[in-house]
Amino acid sequence: MQEDYRLTLSVGYIHACFLWAHEQINMETHWDFVRTNFSGVLCIDEVHDSGRTILFATDPLGDFTVSFKVVEQNAQDQMDTFLQALKDRGLHVQVAITDGSPLYKDSLQRYWAEIEHQLCIFHVIKEVNKLILDGVRALKNRLKRQGNKGRKKRRGRPSKQAQKQRQYRQGMSKKEQATFIWDHQYLIVRKQDDLSEQEKADLALMLQIAPDLKLFRQFNQQFYRLFERGISKPCARARRRRLVNQASYQANAFLAKALKKISTDKFANMIVFLGWENGERTNNHVERNNRVFRMMQKTRYKRRKVHTLEKALELELYARMLEHPSYPHNVREVPSLGQETAILQMAA
After folding, report:
1. Please, are residues 180 and 167 in contact by the beta-carbon 8 Å criterion?
2. Helices 197-209 and 174-183 sit at what angle, rounded to 10 degrees?
3. What predicted TM-score, i.e. pTM, was given to this entire model?
4. Would you give the distance in Å from CA 280 to the centre of its chain?
5. Which is it for strands 52-59 and 64-71: parallel, antiparallel or unpaired?
6. 57 near 44, Cβ under 8 Å?
7. Largest CA distance in the chain
8. How many CB atoms lie within 10 A of CB 149?
9. Digit-coded pLDDT (tens) for 128-169
């Protein structure tokens, strides 16, 4: 308004426009849209904002946000209330995708007896890869300590070009080997198909410098194969048994901890997606929803009152519903085009 019409608006007037925009929408229309287009798959997650927690539920197949709830703390009773509200709205959830939080472990079955609980494999892979890289770091530190035993180098640091040239010489010092491993440790947990030719050469050099790294690399690639699309659940379980029963993995302290991440009961929840055609295996959809909320809070202004935050989120959900491909655009409850435009502007 200031740039286009040279009007300086007070905060009170802007807030009044915000309240007016919220009065123009009907959230029952949103719930009708959700029930009509709900795929049966629900992603659930929480986002923390200034001491509060906002619980979000999205439909990854339908690509829309189902609902939210602003709570004081991320506690079990708050989660149960949120799930009960979803059930009361008539949602029949067949698959729920969550992270490893204990809040979902028993609550989901209480509200939907036949629900399948898919653990987000992104979080599992992240935890396992962290343990692998901890083992790589330990090998790097051992090489570095061996390098400290030799005589001290002359003062001064060689140029970057000279350092790069020396890295590929056969007579690399222990410290230089440790540095090379540290700079390229990410290659140990990268999928083979994603490696460039240069990265394949760097990985081969790493394994030549420290042959013990081969164990971590082998475990990582075998671990990824547990979650390949197109395999059956019995195949995935057989691959897990071969992974867990390998003595060399159990004897390694870091890999032994990683094996605990895929215990029998947890692994059953990690491969639920294999029983569904085009099944989702991560809760990335609700994570993207959370990032949209954080951006909305950061770039506009931080809404401090709970009722203001709830109204802003409802406006956002309503605006996205109007733009969704599945929404019947020929039938809208907004009285006029001008009012609809104002609602979208307020939500934005």
Report:
1. yes
2. 140
3. 0.80
4. 13
5. antiparallel
6. yes
7. 83
8. 7
9. 999 999 999 999 998 888 765 555 555 666 666 556 555 554
Q: Report strand pairing: 52-59 vs 116-119.
A: unpaired
Residue 332's nearest CA partner among 100, 97, 26 is 26
- Give the domain ranges of the chain: 2-116+282-347, 121-148+170-271
CA–CA gap between residue 281 and residue 160 (Å, rounded): 43
Kindly write down the DSSP assignment for every residue of 264-290, as one continuous string.
HHHHHHHSGGGGSTT---S-HHHHHHH
Encode pLDDT of 201-257 as tens digits.
Answer: 999 999 999 999 999 999 999 999 999 999 999 999 999 999 999 999 999 999 999
Q: What is the DSSP letter of 67?
A: E
Q: State the fold for domain 2-116+282-347.
A: Nucleotidyltransferase; domain 5 (3.30.420)
Helical packing angle, 174-183 and 121-147, nearest 10°: 170
Any idea what DSSP says for residue 45?
Answer: E
CA distances (Å), origin 99, targets 104, 121, 145, 266: 9, 8, 39, 12
**CA–CA separation, 95 vs 108, rounded Å?**
10
* 51-84 b/e (C-beta count within 10 Å ≥ 16 → b): eebbbbbbbbbbebbbbbbebeebeeebbeebbe
Return the closest-CA partner of residue 57 out of 34, 33, 74, 27. Answer: 34
Residue ranges of alpha helices (H) inside the chain are 2-5, 11-23, 27-37, 76-88, 107-111, 121-147, 160-167, 174-183, 197-209, 213-224, 233-244, 247-251, 253-260, 264-270, 284-299, 306-323, 337-347
**Which parts of the chain have pLDDT scores under 50?**
169, 332, 334-344, 346-348
Measure the CA–CA gap between 67 and 94, rounded to whole angstroms.
17
